[in-house]
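tl;dr need the bound structure. longer version: we got a ligand (NAP) that a collaborator sent over and nobodys looked at where it sits. i said id run it. heres the input, straight from their email, havent touched it
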Amino acid sequence: MGAPRRALVTGASSGIGEAVVRAFAERGYRVALLARRTSELERVRASLPRPDEHVVVACDLRDEAALRVAIASAGERLGAFDVVVHSAGVGYRARLEELERVEIERVLALNVTAVLLVDREALPWLERGERPVVIHVASVIARRGIPGQLVYAASKAALVSASEALRLEWAGRGIEVCLVHPGVTRTPFFAVQRNPHGRPPPDLASADEPATVAAAILELDRRPQPEVWLRSRWRWFALASLVAPRFADRWLAKKLGPSDQQ
Ligand SMILES: NC(=O)c1ccc[n+]([C@@H]2O[C@H](COP(=O)([O-])OP(=O)(O)OC[C@H]3O[C@@H](n4cnc5c(N)ncnc54)[C@H](OP(=O)(O)O)[C@@H]3O)[C@@H](O)[C@H]2O)c1
């Protein structure tokens, strides 16, 4: 058995990030848990096997100065990053005519800008890592926008594009860059997102559990791939949207029903 892998996980206080922390810690990884709420990060850390081996770094990722300090602190305390998982992210449930500029900027600042800044700050620590892997958590709607979520979809589409570029930029450094596209997952995500007109949340009855997404992320760390979907039908739908967009529109309109089309 080799040395434990050292992981930085953003969004570690809740949902998918919390499940990733747990999956990693259960397999002997040492983890730096990052989000804003120290109390929630400490709750997660205390529930892990060997809590003293993991570290908490609280910061608001929209604050660049705080982000730099937090990543440096995590790197110094773990010594290197073998894997970085970006799970911090927010939604925005609003149609075009409802959009507020300040909210658009808040979504993009976290879902796009912060991911790139974290990768930039993590680079020296990844270069010290063993078989380094970076995993960006995007969404099934990254490659196919849906009504009522156009800013969120655009943020994840930007993340996909940046990830493709970074995958090549970092190929020469030996750092793998992976994308994972969860579908609807049972987390607090829908409750905390900005939803000024009280639009309905998705039906969570058939949602994935965060542990299912975490298992896919663990597998990506073991065997990195450029891009994985949790459910293959969304992959085919992304492809259909590219080659037969009107057909894909009709299928989506039928699936969503009238509430999301007017
Ligand atoms: N749930 C879904 O159906 C779904 C589907 C596809 C993709 N995703 C993506 O999966 C990722 C995780 O979402 P989730 O479902 O686990 O949602 P979640 O339970 O709401 O978790 C979001 C995490 O982001 C952190 N966060 C929010 N704002 C932050 C900030 N300014 N600085 C630092 N951390 C911040 C939150 O912690 P604090 O509040 O403590 O900061 C929390 O740990 C997101 O990127 C989301 O877009 C989710």
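gonna send this back to them w/ a short note. DSSP finds nine helices and seven strands in the chain.
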